[in-house]
Amino acid sequence: MRATGDFVTVKGGEIFFLGRKDNQIKRHGKRLNIELVQQVAEELQQVESCAVTWYNQEKLILFIVSKDDVVKDHIFKELQQRLPNHAIPDDLVLIDTLPFTSHGKVNASELNKIYLDYVNLKTENKFDGKKDLWEKLQCLWKSILSLPEDLLKVPDESLFLNSGGDSLKSIRLLSEIEQLVGTPVPGLLEIILRSSILEIYNYILQTVFAVEDLTFTKTYATKRKLSDTDEEETSRKSLHQKSACPFSYKEINAFIALSRGSQVLSVNTTTFLSELGHYSLACSPDLISQTNIKDLKSLNPPPVIGKSKDPNCVKKVFEEGNPVTKAEKMEIRVRWKSDTGKCVDASPLVVIPAGDNSSTTVYIGSHSHRMKAVDLRSGKVKWEQILGDRIESSACVSMCGNFIVVGCYNGLVYVLKSNNGEEYWIFTTEDTVKSSATVDPITGLIYIGSHDQHAYALDIYKKKCVWKLKCEGTVFSSPCLNLNPHHLYCATLGGLLLAVNPATGNTIWKHSCEKPLFSSPQCCRQYICIGCVDGNLLCFTHSGEQVWQFSTSGPIFSSPCTSASEQEIFFGSHDCFIYCCNMKGHLQWKFETTSRVYATPFAFHSHSPNSEMLLAAASTDGKLWILGSESGQLQSVYEFPGEIFSSPVIWESMLIIGCRNNYIYCLDLLSGSQK
């Protein structure tokens, strides 16, 4: 006798086959036993029998023998209510009877042939003109988003994400449309994520059927052309590099700039940083110019799995948030909050002038079109500028410290004076800019991506575009600069990771991850790391060789963050965990939160005598988690009154973050000696 791995049931002395024990797949970054889908479908009243196949290891297909006439959309809606997103079938096929093998098992090969015939038939009968395409697109939209049945027509201006869509549903809609038209539609995912249903319809007509007489009404950004430079001239024009910065702005300040993911830019601050030591900073030394900070000791903790439900947590309430502190290690209080009028998804930029720590400024934008400069210690608004559209891009400071650079939904990149918010220069891209800019400390150039599928190098002092690079996909994430070797890394929603020469804009190498890259790349001395929506964190050498990948159980939108020693890398996943891996791709610990983790973690030293290394990370349900970076042990958790997609930034014992309740928050992180 031996175990066959079959699930069966016994009725009347006969054995009936139910499924395979090992019938597991990985879909949308999560483990799934396809028998679960079959069992849930069999419980539906309209279903007599059914089977599930993993077609070509890329599509989950449900075959149904119905008891009576049934509408597929009704079955899909019931499945959406009973199954998690990653278990919803890609397609549903109605058949008269299930095929069986001579051993009485469902014949999967025969089912795959049935599905292939079904797809071919759909392709042959795909359209009867533009009207038919429009009606089918409307049906798919309503079905995938589970919209009310009595909704006769989806409004032309409806946006997928605003109508209840998410990244997984957008991938399903893409698959359905490509199956409908019988061919891949390049760039369609980006259009689904940012455009109205009418724009999606027009894009399909133009791309697949070469219909040219279309009038596009962009929801966020109207297509533009470069007005101040010739496109051919800027596409590959190089900037000669010198050892000293080539820009010629008359006043260069000394400052430190902190941004999400523990990123630090330091200009002319050797003395200042030497006095600070490593008291407050945790960053990659490659990102600090002209400093003498020493690396921290290597951290190699054993693997640990932490949980958010800690019986030792003591709940306290301060103002409108709910801090929970473990063993009284840390207390969190609101220092100030500043109303922006709408959701704050951008992450803060904190600029600390050398020699004048008291005038530290927080720069952050909002969906209300407002860009604000706020005093870190008091919360007093220094200036506020209303831009042309919503702001999701996080701000970047210029090398001289006199300008703030931020992208906008209207396709413009704004260069504002840092002291008063006045416009200094506006650069025009051809579509929405959600990407956050980065500055090159060698040349002073500003690099930024756009939904127009280009990356740009801007000389803000000469008010010109030095080069632009076609990236073969929407650049949603933020470029990452590495100084040695001098590479610029860009990622696209088309799944490409590109290494670019920062001076010329020429592509050095590129790697296709096949799935969209929402995560921003993160550099360290040896490697470049990035998260993918397939649930993998990928690690490459600077020459483009993939070293390892680490798999989670959900899509990764969070950008990685490295420890000061560059021995660990931290990131979040939609599987609700915060992860710590070493640079060999081995798990050190993971901590379970209460929701998906979209934001980028921030590694920092506690402002206490023992200077413990900590990690701050936020989950989308509005909780801020403070963990020990070596062990993943919970130190404290604070609950905001709104969702969090912004990433935290910390200076001294103050944490700054944006919230979807329209406010920017500054929290005091108080250790036992500071309470």
TrEMBL record:
<dbReference type="Pfam" id="PF00550">
    <property type="entry name" value="PP-binding"/>
</dbReference>
<dbReference type="InterPro" id="IPR052091">
    <property type="entry name" value="Beta-ala_Activ/Resist"/>
</dbReference>
<dbReference type="InterPro" id="IPR045851">
    <property type="entry name" value="AMP-bd_C_sf"/>
</dbReference>
<protein>
    <submittedName>
        <fullName>Acyl-CoA synthetase family member 4 isoform X6</fullName>
    </submittedName>
</protein>
<dbReference type="Pfam" id="PF13570">
    <property type="entry name" value="Beta-prop_ACSF4"/>
</dbReference>
<dbReference type="InterPro" id="IPR036736">
    <property type="entry name" value="ACP-like_sf"/>
</dbReference>
<dbReference type="InterPro" id="IPR018391">
    <property type="entry name" value="PQQ_b-propeller_rpt"/>
</dbReference>
<dbReference type="InterPro" id="IPR015943">
    <property type="entry name" value="WD40/YVTN_repeat-like_dom_sf"/>
</dbReference>
<dbReference type="InterPro" id="IPR011047">
    <property type="entry name" value="Quinoprotein_ADH-like_sf"/>
</dbReference>
<dbReference type="InterPro" id="IPR002372">
    <property type="entry name" value="PQQ_rpt_dom"/>
</dbReference>
<feature type="domain" description="Carrier">
    <location>
        <begin position="131"/>
        <end position="208"/>
    </location>
</feature>
<dbReference type="InterPro" id="IPR009081">
    <property type="entry name" value="PP-bd_ACP"/>
</dbReference>
<dbReference type="GO" id="GO:0043041">
    <property type="term" value="P:amino acid activation for nonribosomal peptide biosynthetic process"/>
</dbReference>
